[in-house]
Amino acid sequence: MEKIIFKVLEEDAKKRIDKYLAEKDKKLSRTQIQNWIVSNNILLNGETCKSNDILKKNDEICITIPKTVELKAIPQKMDIEVVYEDSDLLVVNKPSGMVVHPGHGNYEGTLVNALLYYCNDLSGINGVLRPGIVHRIDKETSGLLVVCKNDFTHKNLSKQFADKNVTRKYIALVHGVIPHNSGKVNAPIGRSDKDRKMMAVVENGKNAITNFKVIKRYEKYTLVELILETGRTHQIRVHMKYIGFPVVGDKVYGPRKTIGEDGQFLHAKSLGFFHPAKKIVLNFDSDLPKYFNDFIDQLK
Questions:
Q1: Boundary (domain end) residue, out of 163, 196, 220
Q2: What is the DSSP letter of 144?
Q3: Residue 142 CA neighbour count, 13 Å, CB half
Q4: Among 101, 132, 163, which residue terminates a domain?
Q5: Using one digit for the tens of pLDDT, what is the confidence trace for 170-228?
Q6: Which of 2, 19, 78, 152 is the most exposed place for a label (fewest CB within 10 A)?
């Protein structure tokens, strides 16, 4: 594997390492640099580092460029619940436990693998590993996703998501009894300084806003409806932990001892958007998974 060495000059001291490297090599994006830092492909003075580490004169940075691996998602026959389909798009109800698209160390058994078997025509804007995928939900989150069959539809829906013109409502069961009937969490989200694999509310994070409304209170839990104004990684899970009411079943952001082995109690229940070809608004709603409903019934 190719290695690149940088020696920090006095003029570059006090810069963040990710910003310094992006300036030194224009072919590298900040995101790629940050990913390589997380995977320890970038070392500072022979040690692991963080994206926001501040450089000093004579620091030595070593980049180990990983080998390029040609990857392609393969079609796989799997059961998927298609709730709507036409010549431009389809809406699926993803089960908990299924990853949306292939990624490092997880190239089979994803929703994309199932979609490639189910239909031949998916938009190609996001490349061979994410065909048709406009938005994602976490592996352990269940619920509705829209998938595009052509680039025209994909570009239009991507803009709707970017312009916040898509309706997304989630249902979650959280630990603790929320005293307020409704609320808004407005707190920036970025990589955790303590664990680079996790997200957290951080000062230099990206703008993130989650609205919630209490549906029902139980002795130790609260059932809530959540509406996203932004779409950050793990947003609901991070925000609910931040205000002291983590999602039940969340093994990453929840308490060590949490309920359930079937997935976290977070479901993308409703989805609404403007169909770019049909020129109409489509709204979809889905039932909670059986394990989710069964647990709520026990609480009653």
A1: 163
A2: E
A3: 24
A4: 163
A5: 999 999 999 999 999 999 999 888 887 789 999 989 999 999 999 999 999 999 999 99
A6: 2
